[in-house]
Specification:
By secondary structure, the chain is of the alpha/beta class. Helix content is 43%, strand content 16%. A 5-stranded mixed beta sheet has the order 3-2-1-4-5. Strand 2 (21-30) and strand 3 form a beta hairpin.
């Protein structure tokens, strides 16, 4: 099963308060290696963008009004994520918005069983620490200089790098996938080595004793 790193930007903190999604980004990977298959859409929320939200992502109502509405991109989005594991940072936030939007247009909700919350992974690994995406990037020395504003597509790529570090997985070289390494790990305890044992003859044993005795005489007598 391929993975999808997913992020959204919104007009506010709660769908129940009338806020909407303004950007969706998805980066598909296979064994955490990008497949170059990307879904990225700006969305017309059909409402204003509060100043607090604008300060976070920088999208104006005028800019967003030129893009498609959620119901116009929903089928393409659902097809893109179908049968894939979703990796989302603070998944409850994004899922509440996505399932809220999907419910409004009578589409099936995203199953939470298909989702890995990387925030929960980080909290389990670093309890008591800040585990925001920014904090994880700083912890793992991931360059965030381009993140002057929140951007769903950039955040997906930063999340992919942070998630690899959370799992202590080095990015494979020469196209070696994680599944290959997993197979090797499973075999480690089962490998059989050819340990040949050779028995020397009595003559060889006696010759060896004579050799040692002669060497001792040369060096110590």
């Amino acid at each position: 099963m391929n993975e999808v790193f997913l992020d959204t930007e919104t007009t506010g903190l709660s769908f129940k308060d009338g806020h909407k999604i303004v950007e969706i980004a998805c980066i598909e990977t296979k064994d955490l290696i990008p497949t170059n298959n990307i879904f990225h859409k700006f969305i017309n929320p059909e409402r204003d963008v509060p100043e607090e939200a604008f300060k976070i992502h920088g999208f104006t109502r005028e800019f967003l009004s030129k893009h498609k509405k959620f119901n116009e991109i929903a089928d393409e989005f659902l097809e893109f994520i179908s049968d894939k594991k979703l990796i989302i940072h603070n998944a409850n936030f994004d899922l509440n918005f996505l399932n809220g939007e999907l419910g409004t247009i009578k589409k099936q909700n995203i199953n939470k069983d298909t989702v890995i919350d990387s925030l929960e992974v980080a909290r389990n690994k670093f309890p008591g620490s800040s585990n925001s995406l920014d904090a994880l990037c700083k912890r793992f020395s991931i360059d965030i200089s381009k993140r002057t504003k929140h951007n769903a597509l950039l955040d997906c790529e930063l999340l992919r790098e942070a998630y690899i570090n959370l799992l202590d997985v080095k990015e494979p070289k020469f196209n070696l996938s994680m599944s290959t390494h997993s197979t090797i790990d499973k075999l480690k305890g089962k490998l059989q080595y050819n340990k040949a044992i050779y028995k020397i003859t009595d003559e060889e044993h006696n010759n060896h004793k004579k050799f040692l005795k002669s060497e001792l005489k040369k060096n110590f007598y």
